[in-house]
Design brief:
The chain is of the alpha/beta class. The longest helix is centred in the middle third of the chain and has 19 residues. The protein is globular and about 45 Å long.
């Protein structure tokens, strides 16, 4: 999928990240493209200044950022940001010319699995808000998907993660975590724009999600 150079690119980060996580991507583009990275509610400097992170609130924040960039835009979301981007694409297809989903899923379609995930997310959220941000970051760096990253990359990301407020981050996990979204698999055929799905070759779970999205 190619995106015209004059099409604005809007980026949405993952959980426990901020727009700074896109720095390397921004530098690699190098084509003068208009790029705007949005900070999700519950994260970084935004924290809870825009209210509690909810599906509706986040959708509104994206709409505001995309309107500032000048729709139609190419929307690129990573992980939690991919879920947010997919939800937005289904709600406001006319604002997008292309959609990029990196390490994303269309949700948990098994009700029992979704309830289990919600329970685990809420337990982790309680742990986060009762810890210092330093303690959370130490815990988060032990997530299996992150442990094989280079020491340099982990250290670069650590500085960004330490900028979060634990209470706000916990609210983001409860309000826009994976279990907060209704599964969207049955609606993928509604997407009107070109869609590119990306996953890391060692990420078996999200590679399977990517293949399922592409086949829908």
């Amino acid at each position: 999928m190619s995106v015209a150079a004059d099409t604005p690119l809007v980026l949405v980060h993952g959980f426990a990240q901020t727009p700074k996580s896109w720095q390397t991507t921004n530098e690699s583009l190098g084509d003068g493209r208009q790029v705007q990275a949005i900070e999700l509610p519950g994260h970084g400097a935004t924290a809870l200044t825009r209210g509690e992170p909810t599906v509706e609130n986040v959708r509104s924040c994206l709409a505001e950022g995309i309107d500032q960039a000048g729709p139609p835009v190419a929307l690129w979301g990573y992980s939690q940001g991919a879920r947010v981007a997919l939800d937005f694409a289904l709600a406001h297809p006319g604002k997008l010319s292309a959609l990029i989903l990196e390490s994303g899923t269309a949700g948990i379609d098994d009700p029992l699995a979704r309830a289990d995930r919600r329970s685990r997310d809420f337990a982790l959220a309680s742990r986060i808000e009762n810890q210092s941000i330093e303690e959370f970051v130490q815990l988060w760096e032990l997530v299996p998907a992150l442990t094989d990253q280079s020491k340099e990359l982990i250290e670069t990301q650590r500085a960004d993660r330490l900028r979060h407020d634990p209470a706000a981050l916990a609210a983001a996990l409860r309000g826009i975590g994976q279990a907060a979204y209704e599964p969207m698999w049955a609606r993928l055929n509604e997407l009107e724009m070109p869609v590119l799905v990306i996953s890391g070759e060692r990420d078996k779970v999200y590679s399977a999600h990517a293949e399922r999205i592409a086949a829908s």
